[in-house]
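User: Hi! I'm working on a homework problem where we have to compare a predicted structure to a textbook description. Could you give me the structure for the chain below?
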Amino acid sequence: MMGKEHRISIATLTDYHLQDFIRCPYQFYFQHIEGKITTQLDWRKMVQAVVNQVVSRYYKLPPICQTTKKVMEFIDDHWSAIDVRQFESRSHYYMALANITDHLLQFLTSTKIQYPPLFLYEKFNINIEELGTELSLTFEVAEWSRSSYIIKKYVVDTHEEMNLLFTNMISVFCEKAFGQLPERIEIFSLMEGKIETYIPTMNDVSNGLEYLNIIKNLLQEPKKYLKTNSLLVCKSCSYQNRCYDGSKINQETVNFQ
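Assistant: Happy to help. Predicted structure tokens:
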């Protein structure tokens, strides 16, 4: 628990904020509410930025140029900006490079992309009356299908709670913004090489609204925040000392958007 009374006014529920909150509420508070930026960057975010660049450039290629060689070139172009010291060890750095390279190659080149994507790393905002806030979501890749469209997310790593966030946000947003649910949602976890596939229904929209209302209420009450119990998150967190010191929250209202 973070400490004293403190309430956050939420104007917009943003996907990347919610991902950070799900990963660790304490880490979320120090970074996004206090605005404490450290010199140590999160290796996941650095690698995710590389993944986003590689996927975006690959999808823009004409089908004849969608080759293994191109994927390797793109990874080489962007990975060079990553500092090995941001990882837990050199072995961790090389393991991440090997896994991301292997699985990007596997997922991207398994089928040719015949048509330009419907969306490619495009950000959308929509007001959700039931939530009393805006919902902001970036669609990494959306492809046409025979009867609808397919949403694809290429992420460094994920877990059940994160997938629940993704599928709820996407289901609610698509139904409210486009009036049509995607045929399916595919989440590619690049460190593990796994694909999770979800077929959304209208029940997911109502359940998603309930879920997002719960998350919104949790965000508004930092005094109830709990630290993550994930060793993987804590090992690479740059706010460890703040957690161990039992830092308290100042009494004020923050407009989170």
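For your comparison, note the following. The first strand starts at residue 7 and ends at 10. The chain has a mean pLDDT of 84. Good luck with the assignment!
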